[in-house]
Amino acid sequence: MTELNNTRDNPPGAPSIQAEMVATRTRTPYLYFLIRDPVAVLAALWLLFLLFCALFGEWLFGDLARGMNLAARAAPFGTTEGGLVNILGADALGRPILARIIVATRVTLGIAMASAIAALIIGTLIGLWAGFKGGWTGRVIMQLSDVLQSFPSILLAMVVLYMLSPSPLNLILVLAVGQLPVYIRVARAEVLELRERLFVDAARVIGARPYQIIAMHIGPMVIPTVINIVTIDFALIMLSESSLSFLGIGVQAPNITWGLMVSQGKDYLETAWWMAFFPGLMIMLSTLSINLMANWTRRIRDPRERWRFERAKQA
């Protein structure tokens, strides 16, 4: 009956419907799906702008962002005196807000990226080992992970940074440690299911060592899951860094971050609201764009969601 239906729906010599769907998924680039989603396009363009600022911002506006000009202190929003760089106003020391926002992009994104990557690598490796070995080793690792997860990450970071010097390196380590339980639990849950598969038993039979099985057979199947998680954690870590810098225990001057700029401008909200508003707006737009792109990536990689894009293409 299936062959008769295929023959009726497809003329002789034409590819079958199933083959056409597979070919469509194979040859359709992600760029096509991206341009069909206006919200994802805006988020991607904003992230490209942030990447440009992180790479070239220090070279273009580094001197302006740090040089004081007391004659232009608290210059209002919309002023063009001294150049368009003052369009967003100036802070209490006469430094252009626009230049400082662009220069702060590198430190803000750098700390968030370093913390997310460190948590991803360390947490995934620990979770892979805990899930594959099992026994008392896995139980001890999971109990320690539960203890660490019981503390709010922002509170743990506040306590540790209060005891240590608030440097960018300490901030990266503290933020990474706070995110470890997420990757440990996800990686362990994936391994508990994968280690019962026949290909793992076959690898054991031919004499593969545990670390070889993890690296060659199990690890590559866990990576896509943790990659989806790190895209969301990146935005959470950015918010945590901004919160700690706002409280005064994060990045310290002369370094510049968006959270530090909000902290420096909070005392001038009634007289110079632009000092804190625009850095806060950058934090909001950046985290929103990251979450939108993470959601788009998840939908485009999920076969249960991707068919909607393919159906829109055929229409």
Radius of gyration: 25 Å
How many domains is the backbone divided into? 1
Beta-strand fraction estimate = under 5%
| Main pleated sheet | none
> Per the principal axes of the C-alpha atoms, what is the gross shape?
elongated
Distance between the termini: 29 Å
What is the CATH-assigned architecture? Orthogonal Bundle
Tally of alpha and pi helices = 13
Q: Helix and strand string, N-terminal first?
A: HHHHHHHHHHHHH
- Total number of strands: 0
Which topology does CATH recognise?
Answer: MetI-like fold
Could you explain how this protein is built, in words?
With 315 residues, the chain is an all-alpha fold. The protein has a single domain, classed as MetI-like fold (Orthogonal Bundle), CATH 1.10.3720.10. The protein has 13 helices and no strands. The chain is elongated. The two termini are 29 Å apart.
In a nutshell, what does this entry contain?
The chain has 315 residues and is an all-alpha fold. The chain contains 13 helices and no strands.
Summarize this structure as a short list of keywords or feature phrases.
about 0% strand, mainly alpha, MetI-like fold
What's the structural blueprint in terms of helices and strands?
Elements: H1 2-9, H2 17-27, H3 30-35, H4 38-66, H5 97-133, H6 135-150, H7 153-163, H8 168-194, H9 198-205, H10 210-247, H11 258-265, H12 274-301, H13 303-314
